[in-house]
Amino acid sequence: MRLVSPVRRLAADPVIGLALLGILGVLPLAVRFYWPAGEGLDVTGHQIGRDFINNWVGPRLAFSDRLATLFDLDGYHAAIGTEFGAPLPFHNWGYPPFTLLMFWPLGQLPYFAALAVWTVGLFAAFSAVTLSQVPAGRRGRALLLLALAPACLINAVGGQNGFATAALLLGGMLALDRRPILAGILFGLLTAKPHLGLLLPFALVALGAWRTIAAAAVTTLALVAVSTAVFGLDPWRQYLTATSAYQYALLEAFQGFYPYMMASVFAAARTVGLPMGAAWGLQAAVSLPVMAAAIWAVRRTQDRTRRAAVLAVAAPLMTPYAFNYDLTAVAAVVVWRLLAAPAGSAPGGAMVAAWLCPALIMPLQIVGIGGFAPVALLALFAALIREVRQERPGLAAPLPAAA
After folding, report:
1. Which of 354, 361, 303, 357 is nearest to 333 (CA)?
2. Which residues contact 113 (CB under 8 A, 6 or more apart)?
3. What is the C-alpha to C-alpha distance for residues 143 and 149, in angstroms, rounded to an integer?
């Protein structure tokens, strides 16, 4: 009997191979930026959980008569230091006011307990949505692959919200035909990150999903109304003016750590040195055809998994404000495609590139090389559109592995 080396065994199993690539891709970033260094801090001096700080501190301030502090950059920075007992690197508040009500339970827990609930709980919700579209006998392998996806690992070490947004976007699309009201509620909750849902209104109108549109509108209005009743109108005024202006200023300055994490066409253009006007023009030149192709595809296909996949891959191509942690839904698409294929089927190059881009864009953009993420996402999106075009009208075809 021939002996097969462990490397060859791994190469023969695409699930294990992609999982290992995920670990290897994220490990250098984890060591450089997120590795624990003692006293609750990582090697860069940030609190472990990094961006989860906002989700924990925000409601603590809002429900202790310090709501206005959220919209005062210097005051908010100082308040974070007070909450943790020592000055920490700069953070800014960027969520709509109704999220303070959602985050309130987290603010009642000790920080690390809240971080664990946030990370594990949201990953459980996201994985449940993803695994619902995987054959029952392959769900264990799918869960392993999903847990080690670069986008998921980056979410976990960075305390980010990608598990929540992916669960809402994918869950809404999967529920659209059978449970349209639930789909609308999920899309209404996704307005916590409105830039990730830019395509949804157009897709829903194209599908004639009027009950979902109504449910989404009612959910959004209810969130605004309840938060206004609790906090008043001023936080919304501040969010729509001061917060939005600051976020636009970040795009304009394009400096610091956050640009390295951006996965958008706009960010790629800015990384290679294009001015704001040209970057916006390039973003529009990609977004509009992607929107048109996505609307055509969701109308044509009857496969709800493929429909969700099309919108998941289109979403970060549509917005200038997409980050590597927003690509969790794309990781779910790769898992669907690989686990729906015959055992041992190798992933295509577009799948591998889309899988790795949450990790690779950071080192590439640090050295001034932009464009990897948009190119990878466009390749995967084009493969999905091609498969929809090849479907027989009225018949749903299974999602293949090859991209």
Report:
1. 354
2. none
3. 10
Q: Would you say 104 and 63 are in contact if contact means Cβ atoms under 8 Å apart?
A: yes
Phi-psi region of 275 (alpha: psi -120 to 50; beta: other; left: phi over 0): beta
The neighbour count for residue 51, using CB atoms within 10 Å, is 18
pTM higher than 0.90, yes or no?
Answer: yes
Q: Of 94, 16, 18, nearest to 53 (Cα)?
A: 94
**DSSP labels for 273-300?**
T--HHHHHHHHHHHHHHHHHHHHHHHHH
Type and span of the H or E element at 107: helix 99-107
CB 302 within 8 A of CB 396: yes
Contact 176, 298 (CB under 8 A): no
Q: pLDDT tens per residue, the chain (403 residues)?
A: 444 444 454 457 888 889 999 999 999 999 999 999 989 999 999 999 999 999 999 999 999 999 999 999 999 999 999 999 999 999 999 999 999 999 999 999 999 999 999 999 999 999 999 999 999 989 999 999 999 999 999 999 999 999 999 999 999 999 999 999 999 999 999 999 999 999 999 999 999 999 999 999 999 999 999 999 999 999 999 999 988 898 888 888 898 888 999 999 999 999 999 999 999 999 999 999 999 999 999 999 999 999 999 999 999 999 999 999 999 999 999 999 998 877 667 788 899 999 999 999 999 999 999 999 999 999 999 999 999 999 876 544 455 543 3
| Residue 157 parent element (H or E) | helix 150-158
Q: Are 316 and 322 in contact (CB under 8 A)?
A: yes
- Of the candidates 325, 298, 300, the one whose C-alpha atom is nearest the C-alpha of residue 309 is 298
Question: Which tokens belong to 356?
Answer: 């790795």
Contact 305, 399 (CB under 8 A): yes
Distance in angstroms (rounded) separating the CA atoms of residues 34 and 159: 10
